[in-house]
Design brief:
This protein is mainly alpha-helical. It has 15 helices and no strands.
Length: 374
């Protein structure tokens, strides 16, 4: 029990520290650039994240589970993914002519694979250190590039912050004695996790990719700020998800932790709702349109937490198709919502679509959970 508490504390501290660092960073960026420029950064970052996620081939979930089960496939899978990632990065540059996005793809893959393997081996303290180091580098490098070259280079700073972990990644793939043919034995699981991760990635990127060109970068800028606050409010649920996934995969009970995290999410939702009208005008007066967005998104924390708990259980039981369907439901409801609600509620409609989509998925997961009795 003491070891569990130590590991969970390490994850919690790391996630709180990194989210606070990232949150302050994005709030500071919002204060020194225009709202439309802020929206443009959110748009570009979403494209980079989506391309990187596609290149990962489901590595985060697959490697976490395989490492937890001490499977020999970890190294060949990592080697294969980085090879694919380099190829996609080159194609991305030829299409977008954006060096920052291309470097981001490779760096994101390296960092994600390294951390997924650490989580699977339950090296939570090392994982936590890596998170804090990367976030610190992100802030320093991005601000340096911004002050020397402009806001367009912020993405490049984030991309470079991933690269120091190449050393750890190299140690992971070197001396690979297991051939790529080993991947064939696990191709069904890898494919399922790939579809799972893509379906999970789309809800966090597709909305911004649609909103920017369709409704303008000023609206996206306010929405993007709301998302940053939302990320801060989901600090602890995200940390707990990273902890309970390998625990669920190894059949270790996490029932008490899950109950506590739901209570915490409710408290955070209430705090976000009441504090945003006080803090935003004082800190970011240019973003007054984002106040109600943040209030709505504060309550999205509750269904998001419940969905993370369900997703961990389903993935650990190798029933990822359930989560894939949940993601499809989410995307369908969210896209339909943002295209229709923005006409009546403006930027607030974007936040409402997120709340409705997450709530519908909670209902779906609850029904499925009772049906399968997982």
């Amino acid at each position: 029990m003491l070891e569990k508490l130590k590991n969970l504390t390490a994850l919690g501290i790391a996630n709180i520290a990194t989210t606070v660092i990232a949150g302050l960073f994005w709030i500071y960026i919002a204060s020194i650039i225009e709202v439309d420029e802020y929206g443009e950064i959110g748009y570009t970052l979403s494209i980079a994240t989506l391309i990187a996620g596609i290149s990962l081939l489901g590595a985060k979930s697959s490697l976490t589970v395989f490492a937890a089960r001490k499977e020999s496939i970890v190294r060949p899978l990592s080697l294969f993914i980085i090879s694919v990632g380099i190829l996609i990065s080159m194609i991305t540059y030829m299409i977008l002519i954006d060096f920052g996005v291309s470097i981001y793809v490779i760096g994101f893959i390296i960092f994600s694979i390294t951390n997924a393997e650490l989580l699977g081996r339950k090296l939570y303290i090392t994982y936590s250190k890596y998170l804090i180091i990367q976030r610190t580098l992100m802030v320093v490098l991005s601000l340096l590039l911004y002050y020397f070259f402009g806001y367009q280079f912020i993405i490049l700073g984030i991309a470079i912050s991933f690269l120091p972990f190449s050393i750890k990644f190299y140690n992971l793939i070197k001396n690979n004695k297991v051939g790529l043919s080993k991947l064939k034995d696990k191709k069904q699981i890898i494919l399922s996790n790939y579809v799972l991760e893509i379906s999970g990635l789309l809800p966090g990127t597709l909305d911004r990719i649609i909103i920017g060109p369709t409704f303008g970068f000023i609206i996206l800028g306010n929405y993007f700020l709301g998302l940053q606050v939302f990320m801060v409010l989901t600090i602890i649920p995200s940390a707990v998800y990273q902890y309970i996934l390998p625990q669920d995969a190894s059949k270790t009970s996490t029932a008490k932790i899950k109950k506590v995290i739901i209570i915490i999410s409710i408290i955070f939702a209430i705090l976000g709702f009441f504090l945003s009208p006080i803090l935003i005008p004082a800190v970011l007066p240019k973003y007054s349109d984002a106040i109600e967005v943040i209030q709505i998104m504060s309550f999205v924390v509750i269904p998001t937490t419940i969905n993370l708990i369900y997703a961990s259980k389903f993935i650990a039981e190798l029933k990822s198709k359930i989560v894939i369907v949940g993601s499809i439901i989410f995307i369908s409801v969210q896209i339909a919502g943002l295209l229709s609600l923005i006409e009546y509620f403006g930027v607030n409609g974007l936040a409402l679509s997120l709340l409705i989509a997450d709530s519908v998925v909670v209902i779906y997961y609850t029904i499925v959970h009772k049906y399968y009795r997982i």
